[in-house]
Design goal:
The structure holds two protein chains of two kinds.
Chain A: E1 12-15, H1 19-30, E2 35-39, E3 53-55, H2 59-68, H3 73-80, E4 81-87, E5 97-102, H4 104-116, E6 121-125, E7 128-134, E8 137-143, E9 148-150, E10 153-156, E11 165-168, E12 171-174, H5 186-192, E13 198-204, E14 207-209, E15 219-221, E16 244-248, H6 251-259, H7 265-268, H8 282-288, E17 296-301, E18 308-312, H9 320-328, E19 338-340, E20 343-349, E21 367-369, H10 379-397, H11 411-421, H12 446-457, H13 462-484, E22 486-487, H14 491-499, E23 509-510, H15 511-515, H16 522-528, H17 531-538, H18 542-553, H19 555-573, H20 590-599, H21 604-608, H22 615-635
Parallel strand pairs in A: 1-2, 1-10, 2-6, 10-21
Antiparallel strand pairs in A: 3-5, 4-5, 7-8, 8-9, 11-12, 11-20, 13-20, 14-18, 14-19, 15-16, 16-17, 17-18, 22-23
Chain B: E1 11-15, H1 19-30, E2 34-39, E3 53-55, H2 58-71, H3 74-81, E4 85-87, H4 100-104, E5 113-115, H5 118-130, E6 135-139, E7 142-147, E8 153-157, E9 162-165, E10 167-170, E11 179-182, E12 185-188, H6 198-207, E13 211-218, E14 221-223, E15 234-236, E16 238-239, H7 277-297, H8 310-313, E17 319-325, E18 337-343, E19 350-355, H9 361-366, E20 396-399, E21 402-409, E22 424-426, H10 436-457
Parallel strand pairs in B: 1-2, 1-10, 2-6, 10-22
Antiparallel strand pairs in B: 3-5, 4-5, 4-16, 7-8, 8-9, 11-12, 11-21, 13-21, 14-19, 14-20, 15-17, 17-18, 18-19
Helix pairs in contact in B: 1-5, 1-10, 2-10, 3-5, 3-7
The chains are: A alpha+beta, B alpha+beta.
């Protein structure tokens, strides 16, 4: 039958058209592969089934890194946001991040446009029902409609669709998202390959009719007029931004929730999978934080061409009539009508200890997994994994070594390392606190950290890299200037300092030194410099000036983290031989041995981060690994 | 944000937000009737889900199309037509001149139908409906229908939600026990990728609503940039307004009163004065342009950057392509198959193919309607998913064509009234409409009848109107 032979010669097949799948397919295609993106519905590509937002603290850094590596999420967000702002501008630089509210439909349209206009990328509607594997190597996929697509690499990015089931109260039905058919056959195929699957759940709040919201009782949350953007490569086009609105639950809201908690799927047991602790439902909040008098609720537009609004903070899968009561017990929402009830979705995921750091599934060459199937939550986490899985799938096809980012290089490195070395017992979400070196992994320096890698992969053009280099040069020169330009003692200078609440100076000192005073901003210090030097710095673009200030002001902390990285690098890089015999290491605790066998870390650094493996265990391991290395050297 | 007008009075619950459901809801709510539109798939609300072509084959087809769009409130009509593309018959002097009879099935020159962007229509229709003060949306998969003690109808959903109304309109398209056949796969759903309304079907059967069976075919979609010269020739279409995003409209003009609309499927060909498609669509086009520019300058227009960029806007919009596929005929010249490629989406470079020689465009959407006893009967394999022809090398199949079969509510009376079930109506494909125009008409006619009934009910009581 002709249908069998259509796409017989793909290099990479990506299963799933969500945030992970799109990045994976784009990366692999841009690296020169023939890629099929197989999705259950072309009309639902890169749908945002939960919040209409990209970024936030921790997540925003991921999006910046994706962009710096040549991924799509940042650019796609910039093209479709209805609001953007920098969070935590008054806090330390490590927690500053961008967050954008997107127009969901436009977000989908732009991504689809990019996909179909990428040479070598084929968007195919269909359900993957099986994997062709022989001799522990992936050969392709089978579609339920009878087609077969051969490929040297397959990236699984199925989101919540594997055996998906949506739940409200005690009611449920099989669906990947509400109203959409789940993938019912792929789970069985994965189990047959000897892989282990588990269940997670995730939930989304109700959407309400924006016309029924009384915003006079809420705090308006506008975007930044300066219109920053995620992308390093194109500026956001000017647009009118839409505000969000902030309200709070009240004791009355909580009473309503408490009175109906017995109907919550959490209590009735109609949801068995574990949900995200960090994005708790309002039901869960009542159980976990009974002492809190109020919780914030952000009312966010779902787009510029709809009145639907998202209620961040009111996630629930209580029965619909209870949802209505809860919503209406919240100030400003007294007359709100529900458009979409909130619901929970339960799905199969692939516990990620079964993956290596390249996101390859261990034991099946050429099979990769990315996104929610790996037990994460969030569009940014998904896209970051998708990008890396796509890159590594392409590298495999091209017989090149995989790319693995370190924890000191990128949040993406932290994310993947956490996934493959830690027990994931709830959907994983990124926070800055997960990174040891978060002062180095800032959103402002993502391109410096990663674009060289993107360029080597063919995802960042020479012109783009040159742009990064120019910026680095500009920064270095400015930093040098600050270090060399003296601020001279004088009445005007000291008056200005005192006016800023800063101590007067009695000897001339470099501008950089003054800038380290926490009460002074870059602008303050620049104003005190000689007109000649001042003009040079005034010409800096605002984002470069911000970064300059961070580098100078936090130089001490940054140097300390860099020294720490150098110190640990030896341990981090020490490789543990494959099939290392942990039973031969006497003195390891039982738990440590069990965990090490389960996760099979590739380096001592990875081993050290496995929960249950103590520093003492690592010391023992180090001795054995070195001994083994010497033995193999002397033996050869 | 203005607060909604106080709701009250009789409520019409419309189950299904497809072409007919949205038309019905739009007509009712424009007249101030309180409407609740229940949809299992709000992300596809208002979507013409079976492809971009609104066919108008033959004089009857043209009349039907004119009645359908003429009967819609102005904003809904503009939502449909703002970036529609006219499908003309082959150009005079072109390679296909003289074949218009064969291709359109009509003796009329000039007009074969319209091509719309289903995604853009969906976005705009939903937005227009959202702006109607007495219309509300509710996401939910309908699972059952029940007569309440006080004589109303209750609709239950899969999430345990129950909504009631004095009138219920079933507009679920092909979702009643809907089954899709794609190649060797059979899956549930009335539209691709969606959940079928099996429980609702059982509930209707339980009430004694007579059900039969129907099916329709959906064409294959291709992605590629087709060069008319290399393929079988190009038909230049004609665009209504230029693609713009949906924008807010500050006020609503009075819905134009429709000319007499005959019963579904029995539209009499009007004595036509038109000579070509221009005379049919020119007034609407003018209206669309005014609508778009009014919308742009009105209150809640999205920011300028939300407009599709020129790069996006240009994709595959301005032409249709006729291709020849030799493969399917085994290379025999006499068997060369003609297919019309119609742009499906402004953003995705997708095209949907229609077999133009086999028959009128109408058949492509509505073929195979009839009674079948065995729901599980083997369906013919999906149409070939091979790229169109050797002449269009760079195209590939993005979506396989499929056949969808479902239970059909039979015996619906005029305007979709279900005899023996007071207050219960059914519109659109679920009662056998075979094209978008028929679905629209069906929804419009039911809305008018319901409105008249409510006016009768409400005499003395008064129907509260939103403002």
């Amino acid at each position: 039958m002709a249908v069998e032979a259509v796409h017989e010669s793909m290099d990479v097949v990506v299963v799933g058209g969500g945030h992970a799948g799109c990045e994976a397919a784009l990366a692999a295609a841009r690296m020169g592969c023939r890629v099929a993106l197989v999705t259950l519905s072309i009309d639902k590509i890169v749908l945002m089934p939960c919040n209409p937002a990209v970024g936030g603290v921790g997540k925003g850094q991921l999006t910046r890194e994706i962009d710096a590596l040549g991924g799509e999420q940042g650019r796609n967000t910039d093209r479709s946001f209805v609001q953007i702002k920098t969070l935590n501008t008054s806090k330390g630089p490590a927690v500053r991040a961008l967050r954008a509210q997107t127009d969901k439909r436009l977000y989908e349209d732009w991504m689809k446009h990019t996909l179909v206009n990428t040479p070598g990328l084929f968007v195919v509607q269909g359900e993957v029902s099986g994997l062709d594997v022989s001799r522990e190597t992936i050969r392709g996929v089978r579609l339920a409609d009878g087609r077969r697509i051969s490929a040297r690499a397959v990236v699984l990015a199925t989101g919540t669709f594997l055996q998906g089931r949506v739940v409200v109260g005690e009611r449920s039905y099989a669906a990947g998202r509400v109203g959409e058919l789940p993938a019912t056959r792929l789970s069985a195929a994965l189990l047959e390959l000897g892989l282990q699957l588990d269940r997670f759940q995730s939930a989304t709040p109700p959407r309400i009719d924006g016309r029924t919201v009384d915003v006079t009782k809420m705090v308006e949350q506008p975007g930044d007029l300066s219109l920053p953007g995620f992308s390093h490569w194109e500026r956001p086009q000017p647009r009118r931004q839409l505000p969000c609105y902030l309200t709070y639950t009240t004791p009355h809201t909580h009473e309503v929730v408490a009175a109906h908690l017995h109907l919550s799927p959490i209590r009735t047991g109609s949801v068995s999978g574990k949900g995200p602790r960090y994005c708790p439902s309002i039901d869960r909040k009542m159980i976990n934080f009974p002492e809190k008098e109020r919780h914030p609720v952000f009312v966010e537009p779902e787009g510029a061409s709809t009145w639907e609004m998202y209620l961040q903070g009111l996630t629930t899968s209580l029965p619909v009539w209870v949802q209505e009561l809860i919503v209406q017990a919240t100030p400003g929402l007294e007359h709100a009508t529900l458009i979409r009830p909130g619901y929970a979705v339960e799905y199969d995921f692939l516990p990620p200890h079964q993956l290596s750091h390249s996101l390859a599934v261990k034991g099946i060459a050429g099979l990769f997994a990315a996104g929610q199937i790996n037990g994460t939550s969030g569009y940014e986490e998904a896209a970051a994994q998708g990008l890396m899985a796509g890159i590594n799938a392409a590298l495999l096809v091209q017989d090149r070594e995989p790319v693995v980012l370190g924890r000191d290089q990128a949040y993406i490195g932290v994310l993947i390392d956490d996934l493959v070395t830690k027990e994931i017992d709830e959907p994983y979400r990124m926070f800055t606190s997960r990174a040891e070196y978060r002062l180095l992994l800032r959103h402002d320096n993502a391109a410096e950290r990663l674009s060289e890698i993107g360029h080597n992969l063919g995802l960042i053009s020479s012109a783009q890299l040159e742009q990064v280099h120019d910026r680095v040069r500009m920064l270095a020169e400015a930093e040098e200037l600050l270090g060399a330009s003296p601020i001279k003692v004088g009445d005007a200078t000291n008056e200005a300092l005192v006016a800023r609440g800063s101590a007067p100076i009695n000897a001339s000192q470099p501008a950089a030194q003054l800038l380290r005073r926490p009460e002074l901003s870059l602008d303050d210090v620049v104003a005190l410099m000689s007109p000649h030097d001042r003009d040079k710095l005034a010409a800096l673009p605002p984002d470069v000036a911000d970064q300059l200030a961070v580098r100078v002001q936090y130089d001490g902390y940054i140097q300390r983290q860099l020294a720490d990285i150098r110190r640990r690098r030896a341990t981090e890089a020490t490789r543990i031989p494959e099939h290392f015999d942990y039973s031969a290491v006497t003195g390891l605790t039982f738990e440590a041995r069990q965990k090490l066998v389960r996760f099979a870390p590739a380096t001592l650094g990875q081993a050290s981060r496995i929960a249950g493996v103590s520093p003492a265990d690592i010391s023992l391991l180090m001795i054995h690994v070195h001994r083994e290395a010497q033995r193999s050297v002397s033996g050869s | 944000m203005s607060s909604r007008a106080e709701v009250g009075g009789p409520r019409v619950v419309i189950v299904g937000a497809g072409v007919s459901g949205c038309a019905c809801a739009g007509v009712l709510a424009t007249a101030g009737v309180e409407v609740l539109l229940v949809s299992a798939s709000l992300d596809a609300a208002g979507m013409p889900a079976y492809g971009p072509v609104v066919p108008a084959a033959g004089a009857a087809g043209v009349s039907r199309l004119m009645a359908a769009f003429g009967g819609l409130p102005q904003d809904l009509r503009c939502a449909w037509l703002a970036d529609a593309l006219v499908i003309p018959t082959p150009q005079a002097g072109g390679p296909h001149e003289g074949r218009q009879e064969e291709i359109t099935g009509s003796g009329q020159r000039g007009f074969a139908g319209l091509a719309v962007d289903p995604r853009a229509v969906s976005l705009r229709v939903k937005w227009v409906l959202e702006l109607l003060p007495t219309l509300r949306f509710r996401q939910g998969l309908a699972t059952g229908l029940e007569r309440t003690d006080d004589g109303e109808w209750a609709v239950h959903t899969a999430f345990g939600d129950t909504v009631t109304g004095s009138r219920v309109v079933i507009a679920v398209g092909m979702a009643l026990q809907g089954r899709l056949t794609v190649g060797r796969q059979q899956m549930g759903g009335g539209r691709y990728g969606e959940v079928a309304a099996d429980q609702l079907c059982a509930s209707l059967a339980g009430l004694g609503v007579p059900l039969s069976c129907g099916s329709c075919d959906v064409g294959t979609s291709l992605v590629g940039s087709f060069d008319g010269a290399e393929a079988g020739g190009t038909w230049h279409g004609w665009r209504f307004g230029g693609l713009l995003p949906v924008v807010g409209v500050s006020g609503f003009e009075e819905a134009p009163r429709a000319e007499a609309v005959g019963s579904l499927g029995q539209v009499e060909p009007e004595p036509t004065e038109w000579e070509s498609w221009e005379s049919i669509v020119a007034p609407w086009a003018e209206e669309c342009r005014r609508w778009l520019s009014a919308a742009e300058s009105a209150g809640r227009a999205p920011a300028t950057s939300l407009e599709y960029s020129p790069a996006v806007r240009g994709v595959g919009r301005d032409w249709l392509t006729l291709t020849r596929d030799r493969r399917s005929s085994g290379g025999r010249e006499d068997g060369v198959q003609q297919r019309l490629l119609v742009p499906q989406s402004a953003v995705s470079a997708e095209w949907q193919e229609y077999d133009v020689v086999r028959g009128a465009l109408d058949d492509c959407l509505g073929a195979g309607q009839g009674v079948c006893d065995n729901q599980e009967a083997a369906f013919p394999a999906a149409r070939s998913c091979a790229p169109v022809s050797g002449e269009v090398e760079d195209a590939y199949v993005s979506r396989l064509g499929y056949k969808v079969s479902a239970r059909i509510v039979s015996g619906a009376g005029p305007a979709g009234r279900l005899a023996g079930f007071p207050g219960l109506w059914a519109v659109g494909r679920v009662i056998g409409a075979r094209s978008y125009a028929e679905s629209l008409l069906s929804g419009i006619e039911a809305a008018r009848e319901i409105q008249a009934e409510l006016d009768g009910d409400g005499r003395g009581e008064g129907i509260r109107r939103g403002g």
